[in-house]
Amino acid sequence: MLRLAGIALLVVLAAGCGPADEVDTVLRGALVYDGSGSAAQRADVAIDDGVVVAIGSVNGLSGKREVDLDGLAVAPGFVDIHSHADLILLAEEEQRASLLEAKIRQGVTTIVVGNCGLGPAPTNGAAAEILGGVNAWMTPEGVAAGPMTTGDYLDRLETGGVPLNVATLVPHGPLRISAMGLEPGTPDEDQAAAIESALRESLDAGGFGLSTGLIYPPGMYSDTDELTSLARIVAERDGLFTAHVRGSSETLQDATDELIEVSRATNVRTHHSHLEAVGESFWPGIETILAAEDGARAAGLTISHDVFPYTRAATMMSAIFPPWSLEGGVPALLERLEDPDARERIRNELETRAPEWPPWQPGGWPHNLVGAVGWDGICVASVGPDGPAHYVGRDLQSIGKEERRDPFDVVADLMLSERGQVGQLVGEISGSDDLLRILKHPAAAVISDAEDYGRGVPHPAHAGAFPRALRLNREHALMPDGEMIRRMTAYPASIVGLTGVGRLEVGDVADLVVFDPATVADEADWGSPRSHASGVEGVMIGGQWVVREGDYLPGSNGRVLRSGGTASR
Questions:
Q1: From CA 513, how far away is CA 488, in angstroms rounded?
Q2: What is the predicted pLDDT for the residue at 126?
Q3: pTM for this entry
Q4: Mean pLDDT, residues 187-211
Q5: Under 8 Å CB-to-CB from 352, ≥6 apart: which residues?
Q6: Torsions phi, psi of 26, nearest 5?
Q7: Fewer C-beta neighbours within 10 Å, C or N terminus of the chain?
């Protein structure tokens, strides 16, 4: 018997066992969570040809590989329904395997991309160039998307292979940009028809719903009527409508009311992405928001939410700028930052202006991150390959103080020197107690909302969100362990409408995680954001070990999941 990385590995040469009695792998004596919310049951798990073939006492079977899991838990692989790995998945195999290593090592076996209205498809030639600037912060070096439909995107993933299971929402941004660029205002009849046609085509190609990012251009320019019209199309197909709502500080209540209004008007399945309050003075509003969504559910609406278990968030630096300055995209923003009059107007608005409702009107503003958290609450997360690396990980206030410059001038000049390719970390995202309250709520699913793009300081959630949720649950007794596992597996899968993932049952593809429930924890923090989680002893995708005995064994073991129940390997 060889014991490595907490797993006792016993290869059995079973005398007298015929082929019908032998399977590929048997996991012995595990604490099995099936994803339903039930408590763990001690059982064996037999896997053959990538599929779970028996759970319980399987003494009648032997495995070509037998694994003694006494004291360890087995659960369905974690389902991260809020990923921004869209462009990582288009990278070459070795690069994408490296960038996704920490996420897979924490037990994630399925991701959903296309969140927050962001993504590379569907787009035409003119829009692809605009999207290149919008998506620069989430694009690894050397990756180019180009024009493609949602079907083309999924086909590219299938052709190139994926290291874990992937599903996509249809991002609203590319739909609107393809029809009307980054113009504010209401689409005309032809533009609206183009957006709706592309949405239908994308849903038919395998998209599981529509995501909107209402603090980013062009989502911030869309009014409630436009969102409602698109949500009706999604509802026709029983898809999911998700929203990065239109502000999480002054406008949080109005933004949540808008989400509920869209749900009520269309009866679409609705999801509040990363429910949060930004800025300490707005944390008390979380109780009101949770109560409002509880009331909507009591009235018969289907509304859920998710949460990343951290008090900082990652996004693009362009998100701090006023909507009018982003009209025309990143190149137009940079031109305005070079113009003294426009630059001064931007400075004054960032430092003095409060968000207002409705924010889609000319001159409207859905949020002001600088006003909510201050310059010391905004950190530089990444810059271009030749940019000032000494800025990374530091807040704008401290950089300005050191250089004896106004923080606005620091960030404006940084955006210019990096041609807009700057990522940020935003602080004061809910408080510790409020975060636990959101996580504990029955409608909450766990997500990461974070990736490693190979530069700068990634958000530690990319390496530790799910083990962190398990640790927080162990320390604070938020809910039974089986229920926390459900919030990371079957429940998020059901929100999106994914089938064949999130449960550990006979007949399912063997996507699973092995962990020590007494010690599993996140190790990544703001100082060491790439540290791998501890206590995760093994990860299997498609019946193949991708983490075993401390080794990472990447491959193209995942499936591309499409709405309608189709999946390819």
A1: 12
A2: 87
A3: 0.95
A4: 98
A5: none
A6: -125, 125
A7: N
Closest by Cα among 304, 217, 299 to 259: 304
Contacts 24+ apart (CB under 8 A), 493-496: 493/79, 493/81, 493/110, 495/81, 495/240, 495/269, 495/271, 495/304, 495/306, 495/445, 496/81, 496/112, 496/167, 496/169, 496/208, 496/209, 496/240
The helix, strand and coil proportions of the chain, stated in percent and rounded to the nearest 5, come to 40, 20, 40
User: For residue 455, what are the contacts with CB-CB under 8 A and spacing of at least 6?
Assistant: 141, 382, 383, 385
Task: Please report, for residues 163, 470, 538, 546, the alpha-carbon distance to residue 552 in angstroms, rounded to integers and kept in the order given.
Answer: 12, 22, 9, 6
Query: How would DSSP label each residue in 326-380?
Result: HTT-HHHHHHHHHSHHHHHHHHHHHHHPPP-SSTTSTT--S--HHHHH-GGGEEE
Residues 338-363: tens digit of each pLDDT: 999 999 999 999 999 999 999 999 88
CATH superfamily of 78-311+428-540: Metal-dependent hydrolases (3.20.20.140)
Describe the strand order of the beta sheet including 170-171 as a list of residue ranges: 170-171, 209-213, 240-244, 269-272, 303-307, 444-446
CATH 2.30.40.10 residue ranges for the chain: 2-76+541-568
Residue ranges, CATH 3.20.20.140, the chain = 78-311+428-540
Residue with tokens 């791998």: 532
Q: Which CATH superfamily is domain 2-76+541-568 in?
A: Urease, subunit C, domain 1 (2.30.40.10)
Residue 62: helix, strand or coil by DSSP? strand
So what's the pLDDT on residue 93? 95
> For the stretch 132-153, what's the b/e string if a residue is b when 16 or more beta carbons lie within 10 angstroms of its beta carbon?
bbbbbbbbbeebebebbbbbbb
Mean pLDDT for the stretch of residues 106-127: 96
CB 511 within 8 A of CB 77: yes
Q: What is the pLDDT of residues 230-274, one digit of tens each?
A: 999 999 999 999 999 999 999 999 999 999 999 999 999 999 999
Conformational region of residue 209, where left means phi above 0, alpha means psi within -120 to 50, and beta covers everything else? left
For residue 90, what are the contacts with CB-CB under 8 A and spacing of at least 6? 96, 120, 143, 144, 145, 156, 157, 160
| DSSP sequence for 477-495 | --S-HHHHHHHTTHHHHHH
